[in-house]
Amino acid sequence: VPMRPDSVFNLGSITKPFTAAAILRLQELGKLKTSDPVSRFFDGVPADKAAMTLEHLLTHSSGLESDFSPTDYEPTTREEYARRAFASRLLFAPGQGYEYANSGYSLLAAVVEKTTGKDYESALAELVLEPAGMVETGYRAPRWDAARVAHGYEDGEDWGTILGRIQEPGAPFWALRGNGGLHTTLADMVRWDAALRTDAVLTAAPVHAGAHELAGARTLAGLPGPGAGGRSLWSSGRLWLGIALIAAAGLGYQQWLAWQTISELEETDAALLASELPIDAYLDLGFQNWLKTSDE
């Protein structure tokens, strides 16, 4: 599948910062607190998990194992997935260690649903994506043209798309929902970077106060947490773009092309934000300019 300025990419685990942003937004609205115990949202939480909080889920310090399904696509219900998680043996007491856990973000997605009364994708759009102006990010709601969706490749073979694997009713299921599998575009990630520089989604105080929660996303490739000036690497749209594109684009040429595109954006995003040119048009010009330069 040829790479285009409006290609749609799977975000993989970079879905997690969006789930974290939804939780922080709900905290800002007074609907919950990151210090809330999980027992506020789930029935039958056993004694060994009674001290587990939303903050532990956000920061991969809950003690839960990473996964409770054999594949990302097993048809599980929210209740069944939560039952498996809370019935499992902890790796350590909540808050007493660190272990990357997809399951924590699946449970956070369940919290988002229980708190809002909406399905995760709809709630995420209302709380985070729409305020950020991200109209082409989601699981299935944007209904992208299939020709725009980037394919994965393994050993030189076309692996297809995650989007193609989450089309049955009820999907994405709970091994994936909230922790991976969101799709987006280059333009939407630029919009996300711009939104994080304003109060469009989260006001400055909650963003900084909650930086350690969102920094749970730093575990992607061992990224560090808060950086200079109070900003942390999770808030860099350019960094997310680079990782997302490489993860989605596959091997060889497309990887290199993705990095080159990100390099151009990294140098010019300030000009983009100040420009009156629509983001999509700006990206198209930059993309075509890079292709022309590479041909020379």
* Spatial arrangement of strands, main beta sheet: 1-4
Low-confidence stretches: 205-279, 290-294
- The arrangement of helices and strands along the chain is EHHHHHEEEHHHHHH
Record field, number of beta strands: 4
Using only CA atoms, what is the Rg? Answer: 19 Å
Largest sheet geometry: 2 strands, antiparallel
Structure description:
It contains eleven helices and four strands, in the order E-H-H-H-H-H-E-E-E-H-H-H-H-H-H. With 296 residues, it is mainly alpha-helical. A two-stranded antiparallel ribbon has the order 1-4.
Q: What are the salient characteristics of this protein?
A:
296 residues, mainly alpha, two-stranded antiparallel sheet, two-stranded antiparallel ribbon, 4 strands
